[in-house]
């Protein structure tokens, strides 16, 4: 019976590894990468030797792979960084290659450091793994010390060629950043449409998080980036709480009646404006907004239809739409009636003159400037040199036995060293394929390791079978073999993000053709590649079974982190109600002590990061064939997640109704925030230790708040939100209670 979870888990990961993902394909970018490999291989084959061609090909190939990683750094920088690491790995490996014990030790240490690089990020981990692979391959080529320098220089030259091609032949400048921002706006537009029919529709914050990552640029990039990329991300963030607040029946308009119809009209019009803006950003053209949408996004001539909090949210939505047009900083086209209206002459047709609605039209930047708040012009992306101390801090933080990254690094180092010894003891000439396969398959988590292991084997079988058949029928010359290798790598670049099985098939064909350049016979290469790849993949998967780093035991920790972030977000919002003047400016010329919006924004980002960590851990834990003491069942995890999503949504709705500075402080909000702050440490500990958290003081604070507002004709938005938050926390306590 114990074997059943393993069989089931391996079957599920195998199916996932062999799946094909439908994704965008960029032929010109793939062609550019393949041309870079072709230039390097062709020149070294013409001016040097087949061995040099094989060596140089790895540099151009691996540097090209680095440029396809999901990173917001400039692609030339990625190519040059990968080339530098590959060249250093090659030269250091050659220095120790003459002493087998020293080389095995070096290989293990180098692989361990490559495994630790995953703490910095996936891109760093992939590039570091490629340096181990190139060390395994190039040291098999006989050479002298001078030859080692030549090999290292050729590998570095391959990266330089890839970087030069990116600079000389750019394809869709800023395209990925445009797509990220457009996806965020389109995601908010889709959210607005779903809210028309489901006021509690879920929202996926990942596009907004991706857009924020894409917005980080260097000072030089900030001076060169298109204007459209500098003004819309913040608007997308501001739209979301206003849309949700407008649609919510508890805090906004009732579910039936004229007010609800008006809400649906506003939501649909806002979605149209957001979609038009997203389309313009993606294509790099002017914003074209349908006139019908603009007619809806104004106060009706007969007067406002909405009342109370819903009216305030509606007015803010109208103001945000005007900000979206102003953010274009270019002419905006109103389709179907007005041919072209310059930005300076575009205004919302009707505005309310009531004091209740005056605040929604205030210029936030002018208000911040008046208060002395300085806003950064862009999110700063640190240089590679600035990342060195950060990487060292991450290394020290992860260098502990309980860290999944450290366990992965130990696993990689041991497997690569053992795989190298196994490969050396086997009769085939290319025994290094065993550790090479292992290092490329191993990942810090179970699911991706086993997915890649199965995909690597199946893809390699298909790739080498096709390449072997072509070689057997055509008997290509070294030049033709080099050309076929370049074609294979071009296909890999083109299809890299469709699935690892397809990538492995292209790599398998590439290796067969490339070794044909050096004179290896196809029959020997094909058979060796297949069974040595199988040995390396099996070694990688067996190592994870023997020395795992399971995600299942981390579920409660991730849930506690998310709980802490969500409650902190709620406290930050409530503090604005408790003391609206806490960020009031000091004497003339001095900045405000603390900007509440900035604190709320930081707390929101922490909440999103914690939720992302939970989602990733829960997804990986769901694929693992293990159980753990204190583990959350799938039902409990689902209920706990729903409770925290509700709590975050309630706080987000409350954020849409932040008070003005001259508003009356709320004693109930202050008491409720203090109760949350004091109860959180014990609740965090309880969730981690498989105990039900006690939210008694929080419920008592809500009850007292109701008493404070007993004389009011209707409870405030803050009180209703606090009541919902207390219910969500109680649902969480029931979900995580031991059963």
UniProtKB/TrEMBL annotation:
The Integral membrane bound transporter domain covers which part of the protein?
419-542
Where does it localize? Cell membrane
Q: Which UniProt keywords apply?
A: Cell membrane, Membrane, Transmembrane, Transmembrane helix
Bilayer-crossing residues are 29-46, 77-96, 102-120, 152-171, 453-473, 500-518, 530-550
> Record keywords: Cell membrane included?
yes
Cite the InterPro entries for this sequence: Memb_transporter_dom (IPR049453), YccS_N (IPR032692)
Family assignment?
A: Belongs to the YccS/YhfK family.
Kindly provide the name given to this protein in its UniProt entry.
FUSC family protein
Q: What is the lineage of its organism?
A: Bacteria, Bacillati, Actinomycetota, Actinomycetes, Kitasatosporales
């Amino acid at each position: 019976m114990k074997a059943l979870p393993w069989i089931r888990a391996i079957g599920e990961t195998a199916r996932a590894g062999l799946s094909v993902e439908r994704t965008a394909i960029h032929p010109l970018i793939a062609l550019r990468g393949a041309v870079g490999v072709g230039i390097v291989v062709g020149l070294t084959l013409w001016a040097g030797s087949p061995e040099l061609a094989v060596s140089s090909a790895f540099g151009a190939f691996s540097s090209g792979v680095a440029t396809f990683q999901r990173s917001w750094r400039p692609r030339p920088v990625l190519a040059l960084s990968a080339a530098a690491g590959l060249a250093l790995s090659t030269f250091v490996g050659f220095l120790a290659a003459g002493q087998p014990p020293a080389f095995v030790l070096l290989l293990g240490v180098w692989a361990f450091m490559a495994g630790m690089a995953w703490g910095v990020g996936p891109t760093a981990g992939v590039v570091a793994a490629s340096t181990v692979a190139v060390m395994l391959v190039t040291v098999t080529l006989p050479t002298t010390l001078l030859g080692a320098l030549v090999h290292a220089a050729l590998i570095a030259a391959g990266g330089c060629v890839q970087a030069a091609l990116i600079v000389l032949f750019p394809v869709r400048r800023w395209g990925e950043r445009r797509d990220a921002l457009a996806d965020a706006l389109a995601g908010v537009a889709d959210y607005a449409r779903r809210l028309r029919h489901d006021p509690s529709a879920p929202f996926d914050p990942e596009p907004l998080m991706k857009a924020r990552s894409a917005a980080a640029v260097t000072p030089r990039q900030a001076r060169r980036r298109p204007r459209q990329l500098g003004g819309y991300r913040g608007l997308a963030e501001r739209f979301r709480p206003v849309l949700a607040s407008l649609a919510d029946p508890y805090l906004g308009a009732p579910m039936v009646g004229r007010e609800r119809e008006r809400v649906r009209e506003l939501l649909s019009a806002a979605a149209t404006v957001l979609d038009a803006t997203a389309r313009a950003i993606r294509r790099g053209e002017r914003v074209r907004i349908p006139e019908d949408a603009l007619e809806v996004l104004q106060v009706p001539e007969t007067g406002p239809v909405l009342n109370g909090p819903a009216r305030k949210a509606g007015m803010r939505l109208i103001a945000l739409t005007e900000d979206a047009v102003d953010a274009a900083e270019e002419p905006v086209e109103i389709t179907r009636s007005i041919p072209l209206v310059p930005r300076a002459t575009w205004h919302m047709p009707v505005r309310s003159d009531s004091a209740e609605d005056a605040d929604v039209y205030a210029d936030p930047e002018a208000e911040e400037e008046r208060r002395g708040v300085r806003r950064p012009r862009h999110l700063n992306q640190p240089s590679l040199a600035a990342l060195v101390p950060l990487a060292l801090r991450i290394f020290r933080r992860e260098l502990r036995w309980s860290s999944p990254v450290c366990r992965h690094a130990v696993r990689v180092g041991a497997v690569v060293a053992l795989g190298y010894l196994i490969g050396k003891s086997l009769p085939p000439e290319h025994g290094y394929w065993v550790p090479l396969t292992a290092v490329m398959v191993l990942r810090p988590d179970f699911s991706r390791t086993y997915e890649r292991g199965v995909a690597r084997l199946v893809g390699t079988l298909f790739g080498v079978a096709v390449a072997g058949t072509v070689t057997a029928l055509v008997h290509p010359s070294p030049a033709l073999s080099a050309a076929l290798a370049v074609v294979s790598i071009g296909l890999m670049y083109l299809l890299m993000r469709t699935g690892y099985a397809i990538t492995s098939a292209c790599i398998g064909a590439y290796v067969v053709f490339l070794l044909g350049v050096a004179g290896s016979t196809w029959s020997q290469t094909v058979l060796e590649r297949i069974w040595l790849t199988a040995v390396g993949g099996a070694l990688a998967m067996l190592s994870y079974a023997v020395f795992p780093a399971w995600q299942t035991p981390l579920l409660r920790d991730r849930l506690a982190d998310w709980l802490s972030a969500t409650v902190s977000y709620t406290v930050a919002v409530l503090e604005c109600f408790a003391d609206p003047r806490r960020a009031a400016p000091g004497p003339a010329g001095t900045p405000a002590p603390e900007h509440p919006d900035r604190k709320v924004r930081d707390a929101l980002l922490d909440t999103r990061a914690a939720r992302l960590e939970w989602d990733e851990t829960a997804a990986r834990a769901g694929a693992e064939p293990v159980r753990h003491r204190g583990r959350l069942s799938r039902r409990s995890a689902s209920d706990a997640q729903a409770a925290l999503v509700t709590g975050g949504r309630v706080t987000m709705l409350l954020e849409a109704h932040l008070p003005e500075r001259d508003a009356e402080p709320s004693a109930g909000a202050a008491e409720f925030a203090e109760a949350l702050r004091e109860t959180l440490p014990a609740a965090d500990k309880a969730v981690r230790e498989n105990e039900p958290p006690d939210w008694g003081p929080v419920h008592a604070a809500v009850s007292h708040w109701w008493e404070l507002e007993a004389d009011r004709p209707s409870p405030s938005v803050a009180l209703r939100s606090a009541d919902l938050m207390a219910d969500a926390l109680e649902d969480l306590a029931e979900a995580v209670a031991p059963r």
